[in-house]
Amino acid sequence: MSLVWDKMIPLSEKMLSIMNNYQKVDLDPHYQYNGLDFTWHNYKFVDKSFRQAHIEILDAREFKKIWVMHMTIFPNITNPSPIFGFDVVAGANKITGAFHDFSKVDNCWLYTYFLAKHLNKNWNNPRVLPDWAEQIFSPGMLAVSNINTEEELDRLEGIAIDNLEYYLYNINYEDNNGDYAEQQNRYCKFQKQNPHTPAMMKNLGIDKDLFARYMDDVLFPEIK
């Protein structure tokens, strides 16, 4: 039994349930893996209010004692709303890392709302971020680790669901017919500099060329 996994897996199901209200996009079947050692599932959604939402769930509990969830929502390029991001890396006994941000595209009210809600709050683990992360994450980014109590796990779930629902409800009110492709591409380019993501997938046996294509197609898609 794992309290951490018993909390995080239903959280991922809740977030998927919310996103299932939007149009689901079929992905390359190579971006799915169902093996005895681990499973790797990807879900993509589109809507008039955002160009892409993506949820990735890696379940290697039996193989590597790890469970990972990644989620992003990219607004339409005419919309100055921030990029929604949520990541969890969970072992059996604790969450080793949970990260959540409304990453800045422009100084819109939805971005400042997130800063007002989370900046300098007491539930955060100050850490030195690598340069690629410093370039794109907001000062209010939630970064916590060593989460292992029911109270902490419930708190993380509440923040994730509340902010996701608030973001999706309010993103419609931000479109100003601007052009924010450059800012979104900048976010994607810096995310791709994170060495840990491809290293983890290579360690699990995912072909590096396949994963590189997946990063460009789905994980951090730049606008051409």
Q: What this model shows, in words?
A:
By secondary structure, the protein is α+β, with helices and mostly antiparallel strands. The protein has one domain (3-178): oxygen-dependent coproporphyrinogen oxidase, CATH 3.40.1500.20. It has helices at residues 3-19, 61-64, 109-118, 131-134, 150-170, 181-191, 196-204, 208-219, and strands at residues 23-25, 33-34, 39-47, 50-60, 66-75, 83-90, 95-103, 142-144. Strands 1, 2, 3, 4, 5, 6, 7 and 8 form an 8-stranded antiparallel sheet that branches. The longest helix is centred in the last third of the chain and has 21 residues, at 150-170. The N and C termini lie far apart (46 Å).
Q: Which short descriptors sum up this protein?
A:
eight-stranded antiparallel beta sheet; 224 residues; alpha+beta
Question: How would the blueprint of this fold be written?
Answer:
Layout: H1 3-19, E1 23-25, E2 33-34, E3 39-47, E4 50-60, H2 61-64, E5 66-75, E6 83-90, E7 95-103, H3 109-118, H4 131-134, E8 142-144, H5 150-170, H6 181-191, H7 196-204, H8 208-219
Antiparallel strand pairs: 1-3, 2-3, 3-4, 4-5, 5-6, 6-7, 7-8
